[in-house]
Amino acid sequence: DTAVSQTPKYLVTQMGNDKSIKCEQNLGHDTMYWYKQDSKKFLKIMFSYNNKELIINETVPNRFSPKSPDKAHLNLHINSLELGDSAVYFCASSPASDTQYFGPGTRLTVL
Amino acid sequence: AQKITQTQPGMFVQEKEAVTLDCTYDTSDQSYGLFWYKQPSSGEMIFLIYQGSYDEQNATEGRYSLNFQKARKSANLVISASQLGDSAMYFCAMREGGTGGFKTIFGAGTRLFVKA
Asked: How far is B113 from chain A (nearest CA, A)?
């Protein structure tokens, strides 16, 4: 029984396309996150949602739009994909300020 | 300025020996949390250990222990009896903040190689 799941695991697409990554957690956590890990393995927070409300937005281009339909889901939609968006995107969840548990990651490749 | 510093980009350790991965942090918060995560070559991020800023005892989880020195702002990870499966990237992270949201900041990581 997967705690934090993401789909798809791999995403290969052309520049300019729009794509979505889905995330679901079955841990009952209140807070969910999106992180971007670049080719040098640097992990940076993008967004954080608490009970469906956006609480952290780390100056991410507005081509990235997170959506939380309910507490268990946090999806990431990316418009007009650029080469620099190629990275691994991780979803995570945590109870309030506690330990974050990560999904398996989605490797996005923009050609 | 870097909030989490991991000065060792790569480390080698002989199987069955202990290894210490360094982490220093910078915060003005009184309440914060420190974490270590492991990322094997398969890519997933695995939570290893947590230390709260008010915890007086060093955290331990099996073969992992966190050497917390608050005055020096260091939170080193000690892995005892290294195993081949410990070869991975290790990330130190700090959670700070309060109203407006808790934010977790990650260090650049240390790649650990365990030699047979």
From this structure: 16
